[in-house]
Every structure is written in structure tokens, then in C-alpha cells.
Amino acid sequence: MGTFHSIRTDVERLALRITENCRQELPSQPCALAGEVLEIWARGDRWEMTLRDVKNEERSIGARLPISGRKPSVGYTICIVGRYDVELDPIDASFRLVFEGTHRDPSWEPKEPALQRERRDVIRRLRENMAPPARLEVEPQSIVLVTSRGGTAVQDFRAGLGTEGDVPCQAIAIPLEGGTTTDIGGGIRLAGELHVV
Fold it and tell me: Beta strand 143-148 with 60-66: parallel, antiparallel or unpaired?
């Protein structure tokens, strides 16, 4: 009868072999890694973080960086210099790819959060595609706003026109939050029936 091995010993030996094979395939030279900080916490003298690929949101990697200077902010994209490594967990013989950073890339400026960047880009594109403001042929003598109840639309509109009190301005109140397109359409129809000029 053959020699019996424990499952733990066999799994550990296999995981070690896989880990060593993976390490041989990793770049031997230091490289830079940029990613969006999803989470970060301190462990000993290093920051432990999860970085997300800015080009593919489904990809992320664990990374470490010595604690020095300002803490990287969640949501911002940073660039760190270091090496890839394969980390073996001796408890369950699992392994994962990590990036062992030595320092931040000093030439890399921290990037603002991706969501904030996307919102700013959307606003910029909207502004670029906007038609020029319409010019009124005649000065308005009265204005009707279709707006929500209890809002400050009338005051804001007057302040924007710079005609505080010069032009009569009234509001048709409709429920915006929880309201329907019928409510909005009814408010617009009522405004049309007032024959404002």
C-alpha cells in the first residue's frame, strides 16, 4: 500500500509550485501601476489598497505602498512604482496577484475621481452642443413659470433676469416629485391659456 499524504500537504505543495511558476512569468524590472483607489487601510507600516483599472471597471488588483506623506484618497487615481508579486495564503493555500509598491510616481499628478471626471465631461459636451440663447423679439410684459410647489423658481428667475419687480411673474404649481407627465403637461397647457406676452 502506498504512502498516505494529508490533503493540506499536497495542496500547499501544489500552491507553492504554482506560485513559483507565476513569479517567473512576472516582469523582473520595476514598473509603474496606475489605478483608481477603491478602498485603503493601514496595516503595519504600509497602506493596503485595492486599485481599479481605469479602462476596465471589472478589473482590480491589491496593492501595497509604504506609509509616507499624505494618505491616497478613495476615488482618486494614483500611480505607484514597484513590482508584481504572487502572495500565498498558508491557511487555505490560496494565492493572489498583488503589486508591491515602493513609492508613488512623483511625475504623476493625482487624478480626480472617475465619476467626477465623467460628470464634468458630460457637462462640457452638453455646453459644446447647446444652441445659442434665443433672442426675444419684444420685451416680455408678463412671465409664467411651471414649477414645483414651494420652490424658489420665481425669485431665482427674476434674479437671473435682473428685472426684480419690473415684469410680472407668476407660477403654476405642479407636483414634480412623484408627479406624472400628465401633471407637467397640464401645467404647460394652463400656462398657454393665460396668453402671456
Answer: unpaired
